[in-house]
Amino acid sequence: MVMDFSQIRRNEHLPARIASQIGREISDGRIAPGEKLPTEHILAKTFGVSRSVVREAIAQLRNEGLVETRQGVGAFATDFEHRQSIRIEQGNLADHASFQSLFQLRLPLEIEAAGLAAVNHTAEDLVKLDEALEQMTGGEKWTEKGVLADLAFHRQIAASTHNEYFLLFLGFIAERIHLAINTAREAAVLTEIVEVTIAEHVAIRDALASRDPIRAREAMRHHLHGAASRLDLQLKVY
Amino acid sequence: MVMDFSQIRRNEHLPARIASQIGREISDGRIAPGEKLPTEHILAKTFGVSRSVVREAIAQLRNEGLVETRQGVGAFATDFEHRQSIRIEQGNLADHASFQSLFQLRLPLEIEAAGLAAVNHTAEDLVKLDEALEQMTGGEKWTEKGVLADLAFHRQIAASTHNEYFLLFLGFIAERIHLAINTAREAAVLTEIVEVTIAEHVAIRDALASRDPIRAREAMRHHLHGAASRLDLQLKVY
DNA sequence: TATTGTACGGTTGTCTGATAACCTTATATG
DNA sequence: CATATAAGGTTATCAGACAACCGTACAATA
Q1: Which of A42, A77, A112 is the last residue of a domain?
Q2: Could you tell me if B34 and B100 lie in one domain?
Q3: Residue A97 and residue A198 in one domain
Q4: B76: which strand partners?
Q5: What is the per-residue pLDDT for A47?
Q6: How confident is the model at residue B132 (pLDDT cuts 50, 70, 90)?
Q7: What is the span of the domain harbouring residue B23?
Q8: Do A52 and B52 touch (CB under 8 A)?
Q9: Which of B17, B86, B100, B107 would best serve as a mutation to test chain A binding (most A beta carbons within 10 A)?
Q10: Same structural domain, A140 and A27
Q11: CA dihedral defined by A74, A75, A77, A80, rounded to 10 degrees?
């Protein structure tokens, strides 16, 4: 029996495919920055799709900051310096060096966040922090739920800074890191040293509660360096 | 004659506005994660625009990872675990508090970057750094070109860490900040104290060149706090 | 009863064609 | 020469249609 997979594989979002194709033209420099793209009509003809699809593709590129469109003029390739959003492909973090780099970035942010949270947190913040801590210490020690509680703990610290951007960036970064860890199945390693981890979290919490930014920063630094060494990361430090 | 302002005002880029409006519904939790959005037809009716515009808006949200669409079923708000990107609406930074928050976030990143750059930079990095510095000190002191050189200087420091994420995040943040400053026309204030700023930059450069991370961090911290006070920001510090 | 097949309504995906808004360029006009 | 106007091209938006696909309800079958 012969199956025709080329027919079945026809799917996977037409505009996205065309967008990445045009995007590659730009990234590879075949369309120089500032240069005008072909008109929508021409692109539609070239790819053999309708103008709607081309428009959606271009809209996506514009959203990523790769092109700018001017009504009545055309679409132009921009250079990649001013894009409107940050994006991390999950695949990138499979690489150990890349993962380590992201962790290195997280370090100063978490430390600073701990310091700010120590100063800015409210009573409600502390309650939520304790709830997350509760879930970590509770019965089933390091299940999926425990990992989520760990995430929630750090997220709550970011929220306790009352700085929207710390929450936005740290939430994003921590999420990527935890996801990368999970897919790498390194969580197994963590099971054994869970007591240590919890103790470090408690130390952070206590420093926060006593509104001591210096101690909070130090506790967070200690925790992250511990976590890093457990993950076999070699972070620069001085 | 009655005008319906609840409908979208249509002076510029309709889909982007609708996207951010729907996006806010999701971010603020009025549409719960996993919940289904109204159909495109209904959304089109609600906003008083055509389905094409709604589709482009949803495409944008999907690109940002806030919604997922399934053909024949509908569009769903994703739980923010798989949000693939960070985005900052430029309008948000018009608010002084928000601008200050972003600057506060930038602080620890720049400082850490300075420390890492002091350790990791290569000879070429230093050359590029000096080129940026050259453009700042050159003839026309604080024109648009000078501002760009300032940006390039900080960008080069981020690059000198040889950590892709520092470059990605700091480049992004610094860009937003400089844009916000420019649109607020606060650049005029900077004109007078340009000598101070340049001196601070030189101090950073020298610390970097001598591969002294502690001094580099301190120089960067001093510079940013100086810049902050010039911008009338009140940053938390301890 | 339990499983499978099928028809149906609803939703997103794509196509087509038209009109509006806008920009650039060329031409006419004084 | 400078300015106004017309023309043509391009993107933005609109409207309506059909295709592809999904979930469900219900009938058919074993």
Answers
A1: A77
A2: no
A3: yes
A4: B36, B68
A5: 86
A6: confident
A7: 14-82
A8: yes
A9: B86
A10: no
A11: 130
